[in-house]
Amino acid sequence: MRNNKYLYWITFIAVLSGLIFGLNMAGISGAVPFIQDYFVLSDVSLGAAVGSIMIGCLIGALAIGTLSDKYGRKPMMIVGAILFIASSLGCSLAESIEFFIASRVITGLAVGAVSVLAPTYISEIAPANKRGTLVANNQFAIVIGILLSYVINFAFVDLQNGWRLMMAVPVVFGLLFLLLLLVSFPESPRWLAKEGRNTEARNLLARIGGEVYAQMESDNISASLVKYANNNKVSFKELFKGKVAKVVLLGSLLAVFQQITGINAVISFAPTIFSQAGVGEDQALLQSILVGVVNLLFTVVALWLVDRKGRKVLLLWGTVGMTISLAYMVYSFTAETAGSYGVLISLLGYIAFFAASLAPVMWVVTSEIYPNRVRGLAMSFSTGISWVCTFLTVQFFPWMLNNLGGAYTFGFFGLFSLIAFIFILIYIPETKGKTLEQLEVDLALN
Known about the structure:
Helices cover about 80% and strands about 0% of the residues. The chain is built from 20 helices and no strands. It has helices at about 5-25, 30-40, 45-70, 75-95, 95-125, 130-155, 160-170, 170-185, 190-195, 200-210, 210-225, 240-260, 265-275, 280-305, 310-335, 340-355, 360-370, 375-405, 405-425, 435-440. The radius of gyration is 21 Å and the shape is globular.
C-alpha cells in the first residue's frame, strides 16, 4: 500500500533547499542599488558582487556529485544547510566588498550543491508516474523563494540598512531546513542499495510505495547495479566515454540552454531592467513582485502538465514562447510606442513560458536520463556547466544593458532561445512514465 503522505513529506524537506536557493538568487535584486552605493561599485564590480555566487555554485555543483556518491545524499544536504546559514549571516554583516563577495561565494557552494542534490534525491525516491511532478516541485520551491524575496525586498526597501535584512532572510529557512534534515529525513534508497545496504533500501521503498512496489523497485535497482558489481568506483572520465558521453552531452547542453537564455539575469536584475525602461524605483520593485507571481503561477502549470503531456512537449512550447516574448522585448526597447508597458508584458511572457518549461523540466530530464551508476557525478557535471553559463550571464549583464542597450541584450537571449527549440526538437527524448532503469535500456546504456 502506498504511503503518499510520507513520500510527499520527504519531498517537501528536500525542496526546502530549493526555496532557500530562490531566496539567495533573487534576494539580492532589491539590494543592488544600495550595495552599489554602500561599497561604491562600478558596473563591472557590481556584476562581480551579484555574480560571485555563481563561482561557488560551479564549485559546489562539480564537487557534490563525487561527495554525495561517496558519503550519501543526506549528509551533503546537511552540509549545504550549514553553509546557507553561515553565508547569509556573512552577507548581512559584511563591512567590505571583499567579505561580501566571499560570503556570496560560500552561499554559492550551498546553492550549487543542493541544485544537484535535490532533483537527484527526489528522482531516486519517486515512483515513475509521479517523478516528473515531484522533481518539478523543487523548481516550484525555487520560484516561491524568488517571489518571497521580491516581497521582502519591497517591505524592507525604506528601512535603514534594509539591504542587510534582505540578505539575512535565508538564515531563518536554513535553520528550519537543517532541523528537518536531522530529525525526519532518510537516505536515498538507490544510494543505500549501491552501498550494499539492501535491507534499509527495501524498507524505505516499502514505506514509500508498499511491499509490491518495494519488491519491483529492488529488483530493478539490483539488475542495474549487478552489471557493475566488479567495478564499483565511478571515475570522472567515464562521463566522456561511449554511449554515456552522448547522454551527458545532451543533458549538459539542455542545462546550458536553460541559463544562456537569460533567466538569472532577469531574476537578479528585474528592478534594474524596469528602471532602464523608464520605471521609477518603487514601481520597479512592485513590477518585480509581479514577475515573481507569474513565475510561481506558471510553475504550477508545469507541475500539472509534466506527467500528463510529457517533458518534450513542454520544452518545445516553452522555448517557442520565450523566443516570441524576447523578440517583443527587443521591439519594446526600440519602439517608443511600446515603452515600459511593452517591456513589462514581454518580460512577463518570457517568465511565464520559461517557468512552464525549461525551469523545472531541465532538472526532470537530466535527473532521469543519466544511468544509476553515474547519476550523481553526471548531474554534478551538467549542473556545473549550467552554473558557468549563469555566472557569465549575470556577470556581464549590467555591462551589456548599459553599453549595448536592452534591444541587443535581449536579442542575444532570444537567439539562444530559438537555438534551444531546434536542439530539443531534434535531440531530447521523451522520458515520461518510465522507470530510471527502463530509460537506461531505451537510451541504449545497458
